[in-house]
């Protein structure tokens, strides 16, 4: 950790003092900084596209390693997360160029532009491959080449890949987490996988949390809230919520009702409520004590 802080401190003043109008430029580095980059380049040996190696957190901008003669266009095409990067307000491109160099056609130096593209792709790939805030794999959102988390107004929500990118552009490499997780958030518009909820998903989640005492309805609504976008996603989410309710206790309650077993109905209902993620912890504690 201390080594990371030292390395970040060494490089933190490079772009702020560099005369280049395109930000980071390895030609402006000191001999000490070049030595550190050389050590980092050694770690990249044998890797065909080292900017895609997300096993190690980037600590500073390095540019392409020796032998990597790809152009900026080739690097951009090799890395969809960079190719798809937008221009919204919180993408903070001007700040990103200072840290990484300018990989766009505004930079007329092809070598510097290619180095900048490498730097940007390395950071974006690391962010894109992040785990959830709880350390879980993010499923389809993991490494999908899409920097999720930007709202229609161009804001980056905390707890999303876009939120981490925004923090990176403002704070530098300090913002990249050693545990390779997204930041935790209390934003109810952010899913566990770091993606945004649309208005339907958000409303369904909110209603699902309020109806925890009706586990079937609650799970269906929560399923819609965690579903993919569009009507098809909502239908799949609703079915997943209903199936969960059946497993959690609904089938037990239904079978008990058919036999006239009222106690079995109560136990099935209590089990479904207890296993509902929206149920308050106090209620779960009471149910667990009653069942023991």
Write out key terms for the chains shown:
292 residues, 52% helix
Q: Which parts are unreliable, with pLDDT below 50 for 5 consecutive residues or more?
A: 1-20
Number of domains: 2
The percent range for strand residues is under 5%
The radius of gyration over CA amounts to 24 Å
Oligomeric state of this protein? single chain
**Continuous helix count:** 13
Number of distinct beta strands? 0
**Mean pLDDT over the full residue set:** 86
- Main sheet, how many strands, which sense, barrel? none
Structural class of the helix and strand makeup? mainly alpha
Give the ordered list of helices and strands. HHHHHHHHHHHHH
Which descriptor suits the 3D outline?
elongated
Distance between the termini: 46 Å
Helix content: 40-55%
Region (Disordered): 16-73, 135-162
Biased composition (Basic and acidic residues): 37-59
Summarize the structure in short.
The protein has 292 residues and is mostly helical.
Structure in words:
This protein has 292 residues and is mostly helical. The protein folds into 2 domains: 2-175, no CATH class; 199-291, no CATH class. The chain is 52% helix and 0% strand. The chain contains 13 helices and no strands. Helix 4 runs parallel beside helix 7 and helix 9 (199-210) runs antiparallel to helix 10. It is elongated, with a radius of gyration of 24 Å. The protein starts with a helix and ends with a helix.
């Amino acid at each position: 950790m201390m080594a990371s802080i030292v390395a970040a401190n060494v490089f933190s003043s490079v772009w702020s003092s560099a005369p280049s109008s395109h930000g980071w430029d390895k030609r402006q580095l000191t001999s000490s900084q070049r030595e550190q980059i050389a050590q980092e380049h050694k770690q990249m040996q044998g890797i065909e596209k080292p900017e895609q190696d997300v096993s190690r957190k980037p600590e500073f901008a390095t540019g392409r390693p020796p032998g990597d003669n790809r152009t900026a266009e080739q690097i951009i095409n090799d890395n969809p997360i960079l190719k798809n990067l937008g221009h919204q307000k919180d993408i903070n491109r001007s700040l990103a160029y200072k840290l990484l160099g300018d990989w766009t056609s505004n930079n007329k130096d092809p070598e510097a532009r290619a180095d900048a593209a490498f730097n940007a792709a390395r950071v974006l790939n690391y962010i894109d491959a992040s785990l959830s805030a709880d350390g879980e794999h993010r499923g389809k959102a993991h490494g999908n080449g899409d920097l999720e988390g930007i709202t229609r107004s161009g804001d980056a929500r905390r707890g999303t890949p876009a939120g981490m990118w925004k923090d990176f552009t403002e704070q530098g490499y300090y913002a990249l987490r050693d545990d390779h997780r997204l930041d935790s958030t209390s934003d109810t518009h952010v899913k566990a996988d770091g993606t945004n909820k649309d208005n339907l998903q958000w409303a369904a989640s909110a209603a699902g949390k309020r109806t925890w005492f009706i586990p079937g309805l609650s799970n269906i609504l929560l399923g819609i809230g965690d579903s993919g976008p569009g009507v098809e996603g909502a239908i799949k989410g609703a079915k997943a919520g209903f199936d969960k309710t059946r497993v959690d206790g609904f089938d037990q309650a239904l079978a008990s009702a058919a036999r006239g077993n009222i106690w079995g109905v109560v136990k099935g209902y209590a089990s479904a409520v207890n296993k509902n993620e929206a149920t308050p912890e106090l209620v779960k504690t009471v149910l667990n004590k009653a069942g023991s």
